[in-house]
Amino acid sequence: MPNTSDDEETNLGTPLSDDLGLLIPTSIVMLIIMAMHPIGVFTTIALAFILFGSYFSLTVPLVILKVISLYAVLTAINPCLLVISTFFLGLLLIVLLFYLFF
């Protein structure tokens, strides 16, 4: 009979799998409906994971990317507006980072 104690159980759900569980389907919808280029979409997601992971030394929930991608899909905005909004959001986060920590 296997041991079912709580200390030996492993949780297969990680923040990375939670983020990818929503980002991958919304990214595919963005590629199909909004006709965005797949290299740009997936490179942005990968860079966000790499930069946040290297700075915080753990995976960071990418709620901002999820909100922007879902808003873009629901309103069917122009892909150029999506790129501009994420660029300015990134600048805002950089300014807040320097303002809070330096």
Automatic annotation (TrEMBL):
Q: Does the keyword Transmembrane apply?
A: yes
Q: Which residues cross the membrane?
A: 20-39, 45-68, 80-101
Q: Which UniProt keywords apply?
A: Membrane, Transmembrane, Transmembrane helix
Q: What is this protein called?
A: Related to sulfate permease, N-terminal fraction only
Its taxonomic path starts at: Bacteria, Pseudomonadati, Thermodesulfobacteriota, Desulfobulbia, Desulfobulbales
